[in-house]
Fold each of these.
Amino acid sequence: MTLAFTLCLVTLFGLAAIGTPIAHSIIVGAIVYLAIKGQDLGIAAEQISYGLYDSFVLLAVPLFIVAANIMNAGAISERLLRFCVGVVGRFKGGLGHVNIVSSLIFSGMSGSAVADAAGIGKVIIGMMTQGNRYSRGYAAAITAASATIGPIIPPSIPMVLYALVSDTSIGYLFLGGIVPGLLMGAVLMAMNAYISHKRGFAADEVVPIREIPALTARAFPALLMPIILLYGIYGGATTPTEAAAVAAAYALVLAAFFYRSLSIRTLRDIMLDSVKSSASVGLVIGGALILNYIVASENIPTLLANQMVGMEISPMAFLLGVNLLLLLLGCILDATTIILVIIPLFVVSARALGIDLVHFGVVVVVNCMIGLITPPYGVLLFVINGTTGIPLIEIIREIVPFLIALLFALALLIFFPSLVLWMPMMFGYVG
Amino acid sequence: MRTRLDWWQARADDVAVALLTAMFVAFVVQITARYVINYPLPWTLELSLTTWLWTVFWGSALCLRNRDHIAFDMIYNHVRPGLRRVFGAISALAIIVAMLASLPATWDWVSFLTIKKSATLRIPLAYVFSLFLLFMVGTIVIYTLRLRKIWRNELEEPQREAAPKR
């Protein structure tokens, strides 16, 4: 490791540790590196600008953000929720199951866990805590846990980011997330059923069967969304980026004309909200691009890969090691940062050890999503705390069993790659 | 002063909203042209990419507050106020110095690009990438103001707000 690179890392981590925005820390670190190396300081601007400007794939990020924000503001999420209450609310622990099932459906429309938690999450926590059937900590915990499924079932913003840094096909990554997403839903529902039984949660009011057709009809246009998206991508009609735009446009049309729940005023708010999210993520992407340029010119990923191959580490040991590290980092870092900054270090090693990069990608994204609910730094915990006011400590206390369930699902995905690769292979992925 | 600043902030937000909307609309036009009327347009993709780039730089410089950025604030939020001021000052200073140092080279790079034109719209790339200069200058100004606030001890207490949706 050269002196320049060491100082770059010291600056980066030093600044990041005292609360400097991650993107700015990276840019400052990069400028330090270029200065010591005696290189042109304009390279930072060049890498960031060209990187963002040249990538068609990245356009999916703001488009998915816009789509999710429209769905939340335009009462689309809420209609879906009412439909789920009607259908799965009749079992013991009913609203808990509703929470998970609605997350599963919503995850087929949105690629962001935070959008899921902030949208339907807020509404369903209100429903669950009414009449004291569930503790508010439990309601918040199950909402946070099920929101992690959002970016696993396609579409998915984190997977777009992974595709960017690993040069893997987004189409196959998306397909690879379907079974793992359903698996996560299944383990969470099993845990909810177990806890509901053990603690003897009162049954929820059941929606009469005769109301279900009406609920379905009202939710039907929204339920079409995942089908349009998946058909668009896998029928070969559109690229994932185009599908993102179709999703946003469809959500807009639904909310504005069909459900009539949008005004120009709210539309501006939605776009401004989306600007803030897109810009903050976009800037970190830009920072990651310059950092990856430096890391690559220092040859770090290849050195690491040679080290791993030289030490004759088994692929499984490597996967377990990386996952353990990511879980620890997930406790203190944001998922976007981990995927863009940490993961690129390991991609070359994974390939050299013969690990399938779609398998690796889906596993690390699942891992990072679990990181969204691990304290002390868990974005989903903060979002739910911020939108509902439920104290963090109550959420954290109740989240442990769900965390265990999700870790169990992650272990299954690590040990059985076919859970991930089965779907992509059905669609012609050869590994 | 406050209200005038708010007015400018609202206008900066308007521009950002317009940029993101343009990006979205251009993309939808592109898809419609390609799949519905089967007449692919050459300029829509470039317009989307340009407005996306501008949204990131404009938004980051002028619409995001310090707390809107993705940051690791666990330590920052839990130290005593005096130390927090020191942290804030170091952050702001580092950002200002680094941006100032690379500003001349970045200016050269951007002005060099006046001779290169974009692929379909034939706009000089200098215009496309000049927003990065705006981002740098905007960032320098905003962190200088922040530094002044820290100096005068006017910085608001950190609050955990709902994170931006991402």
Amino acid sequence: MTLTREQIASIAALARLELTASEFPVYQESLSRIIDFVGALDACDTTDVVPMAHPLAGLAQRLRLDAVTEEDHHEQYQPNAPLTAAGLYLVPKVIE
Amino acid sequence: MSDWETVIGLEIHAQLATKSKIFSGSATAYGAPPNSQANLVDLGYPGVLPVLNGEAVRMAVKFGLAIEAGIAAHSVFARKNYFYPDLPKGYQISQYELPIVTHGTLAIVLEDGSTKRIGITRAHLEEDAGKSLHEGLPGVTGIDLNRAGTPLLEIVSEPDLRSAKEAVAYMKKVHTLVRYLEICDGNMQEGSFRCDANVSVRHAGEHRFGTRTEIKNLNSFRFVERAINFEIARQIDVLEGGGKVVQETRLYDPDKGETRSMRSKEEANDYRYFPDPDLLPVALERAFVDSVRDTLPELPDQKAARLVSQYGLSAYDAGVLTSSRELAAYYEEVVRAAPADAKLAANWVMGELAAALNRENLEIGSGRLAATRLAGLLARISDRTISGKIAKEVFEAMWSQAMSADQVIEAQGLRQITDSAAIERAIDEVMAKNPGQLGEYRAGKDKLFGFFVGQVMKATGGKANPAQLNELLRRKLAG
Amino acid sequence: MTLVSDFHRSTLTQLAAGLRARRFSSVELVSAFLERIEASQRALNAFISVTREQALAAARIADRALEAGTGGPLTGVPIAHKDIFCTQGVRTTCGSRMLDNFVSPYDATVVAKLKAAGAVMLGKTNMDEFAMGSSNETSYYGPVRNPWDPQLVPGGSSGGSAAAVAARLVPGATATDTGGSIRQPAALCGITGMKPTYGRVSRYGMIAFASSLDQGGVLTASAADAALMLREMAGFDANDSTSVEREVPDYLATLEQPIAGLKIGLLREFFDTGLERENERCVREALKVFEGLGAQLTEVSLPHLPLSVPVYYVVAPAECSSNLARYDGVRFGYRCENPRDVNDMYRRTRGEGFGAEVKRRIMTGTYVLSAGYYDAYYLKAQRVRALINEDFIRAFDSVDVLIGPTTPTPAFAIGAKTADPITMYLNDIYTIGANLAGLPAISVPCGFVQQLPVGLQVVGPHFSEARVLNAAHAFQRATDWHTRVPRGYA
């Protein structure tokens, strides 16, 4: 297969996705299929072609005025969070 | 073995002093209650999108112009992808291949007074992450996203620095510059100005660079110097012991005075940079850049050079006085009001005034002692109304009360005695009261001169003009 | 007089007019459609949330406005929103367990605009999880069934909106299209679906899948209805940096223009071996209608177009792998139970919160962006994208619009294509090109194959929505495919 088990493990780690033991071969197979499929692009000659990041060619980023337009709504937002205290979002302890 | 050469590059993150964040309209003020300045865009909620703050762009361009760098007509924001709880979107919007500011330089003055030009590879815009709070929360870490989205200018130097002292000089120069340009308040305690240092060593004469380590988040000049020096010594130790320097990220522990490896950076981070599809390329037209150039103030180096030529100051003094715009402005106001002696003014501003401000933790802008009041004091020294020594007493009085120099001199009767007859009378009195010492002096014990100077000064309440006193005393003692 | 039982037989345009003429009230209308929705849920599963109380409250407000004569173009008209649009105070799930408990604190710009135009939201429609799919089988809330045949898929990712409109549960619904997610379900469900030009409709509040491809659009029973809704939805939004500052024309004003002389390009690459013969027959018959109306047909070739699916399956996963990184259990959404540490929290939250297709695409995207592969995959794909774009530009030099089939086959059985992702991906073979180039495109029904609808696609150059709608409308005036309703829902 195009992708090895180690590669799947490293991709899953980078993407922070826990895969079960039974999921590994499934993803290994489908991902390999997909990578093979998109390999069709190799046949296309793209010398000197500028990559197209988005369809709005020639347009430039609009600049916003520097002004404070927001108010404090954290009491409205935080009920959505799994765990908060004293206005902080809580996660398991991070060790630096 | 002193055949080792150090190679240092600094990455400085300066928080830009915009009112609102780089991609949202949230406030950037420091010290607000947790998450009170984090809107949906800052929080990375589903469906939100970034919109670029034009002032952040102006400030970046201003910096680029001040270091004579190239300003990219076309620059692109890119996503730097990694997971960390204080990074809400799971990526930081930064710039990668096409930064807004390209190569520039900055001159620093070394300890021996010589100038060295340090290359700046690039400066780019990016958003700051939030803060993780570990204290007082057992088993959990608290995330405050007020800081998430604050605009940063990341300034990357070439690896041109060769010692911790050079690194500090460079860092100080950048610090001064961003404050001159009013693009950053430079408050290191609040985290507005942070530095990462890349350090490596190699044998003198080697062309290749040694393996470098990165020391992160140094937020004081003193820490930068100590951390770099520790790291240099550590690396040399490792290499001389036959080992290899591991390329890694380290943190400085100020309590222990050491750097240590950062645990969480064990896995190499593949940031998978790609142009952010939610933002379009930033196009800067000539007219825009020119309009920013028109807003550049007189830069530190220019100002220092002018002080040297205009007021005859030494390069060192000019350097100190131009370390901030406010200080330089204060100095010039003093000299304008007391033009007789620019050097005297420099000494007093850098000396007594600076010491008094430091003692009470005040900034030059505190208005405690207006430039014109100080000028009034200096004028009285220049016109010899009071001696330099007496002036220090007057200064103390002026510092604690809103009086002019003249008012203090009058109130305390501190006028210098320049009347020769009065001084002679005092000398006569002292000579009469101290026959023993007089005899010894005339017999050859020269160092008793100082004794007599002291006695006459005491008798005149310290007000005798020192030069006149010396001359008259010598004559009289000689007989 | 329109009987309550006949409301679903009227078009969105007719209902809007009827409300304005006070022939019936919004409350009556909304109640009738809510009943239909509730009655159909078990069979179709088109809705994830039905907002009954809010809808009736909004209908009452609409009626007051209509009484006072202060109504807008859509006042009182019931619609549904694909559950990818954030709706304030209303659950917004994006078809995912990850957002199962997410109540949005804000309205997407599209939602706000339609609200401002007076439309009344009846609920949030089912969709493929995070818009990733072509069959509405990846939803955490179960598959949507095609009203024409409940054993078959309605298409995806906007399967819920499409089924809802096809079954006349609502006269119109919003949807999104990243690789064909509006047009393909429109074709499979026998309705009209329009994806506007990239940048025409604001993406603010439209949960991102692939940022350079996503566009918000509509699913309706006709091009005229689509024109009405789109006119209200489109427009510049300062909150979206990719929103284009360009006036929105009145799409209704040019709808009736005759299309004699319209230069139509037939895409050679679309009539390929993948296209089922019967589908092709329907499309070619439909083309005769266009000729009959005075349009001129020529064949054009977009040689790089066949590479559009591989390009898409590099670019879209790449962008989504980054867009979905924010789903981490910290500030909203699902979090796993008892995380041991932060890493464990991330891994299990995302492992449990996301379904298989989403994880597959995140991993694909992570891979193609990773060190050593970025140039070979991501950059390469963006270069081929540029070539495809150039092909379109060149084609539009000689023709006004491009026409072809929307999908290679009619609706397929639920479960038939889930085994191999590539088979599923190839459903979008004719639609993806318009997303890569950011072009406006519409799908209209043009016939049946074994009693299943077939769709015809019209693609125009940037910002030619008026012309595309006009061409579609001309076709619909000359045919009645778009008036057909599945048995049991008529």
